[in-house]
User: What shape does this take?
Amino acid sequence: MKLIRTENYAEMSLEAGKFIVDKLRSNPSLTLGLATGSTPKGVYEYLIQDHEENETTYKQVKSVNLDEYIGLPAEDPNSYHYFMSQNLFNHLDISENHTHIPNGAASDLEQECLRYEKLIKELGGVDLQILGIGQNGHIGFNEPGTPFTSRTHIVTLDQNTREANSRFFNSLDEVPTHAITMGTASILESKEILLLVSGESKAEALFKFINGEISEEFPASVLKNHQNVTVIADRDALKYI
Ligand code: GLP
Assistant: This one.
């Protein structure tokens, strides 16, 4: 595992952005695994700016997102579909049918999980997966206790996760209770992983990730079993390291 230390959120985003663009230059038909949340927003801003200034193209790029809330239609401003369109896809030359996000409004959610898992296989797997980390160590929405063998599945969100994400909603009650997420095993099959960690609220999680044991009680710890992981963290997140 490689750890890149940066000063702040802006520098973390810049380093991560350069890292991704480098990969795109050497493989313009990359399959990118994408994440939502506050952490990757700055990276997406970098990718948009780079696309505008340097004409990096996404015409052959395919993307698969990690997760989606259950019960929110794609047009809901809190859905991850909406987040991705607003913060990335609408600003790139990526074709809409190359972007994939689990459908949290599907009528048959079990079937949707199977479809998504099959889709990832058909795409040949994820070349580069971008990840954030939850305060409780979750990756995607794989909450503590999720088996490391899990595939795309339906989860009941932890109270801690709902509280952390309630900042985007009008109230905690509005935060969905369930989500669809790529499983831990699905994530671990990515050829390469880029984990981004920013801010003091993640310092404890980053400390546990680096120093703790590999355990299903701390989902991100499974990344230590992967051969090709880069962590880019900022100074606040590295407080205890
Ligand atoms: C969210 C998402 C994760 C994300 C994590 C951290 O709930 N499901 O994919 O990495 O929690 O979010 P943030 O970057 O906003 O701290």
Notes: Strands lie at 2-6, 31-34, 62-65, 67-69, 99-100, 128-131, 153-156, 178-181, 192-197, 229-234. Helices lie at 9-26, 41-54, 80-87, 109-122, 159-165, 184-188, 203-211.
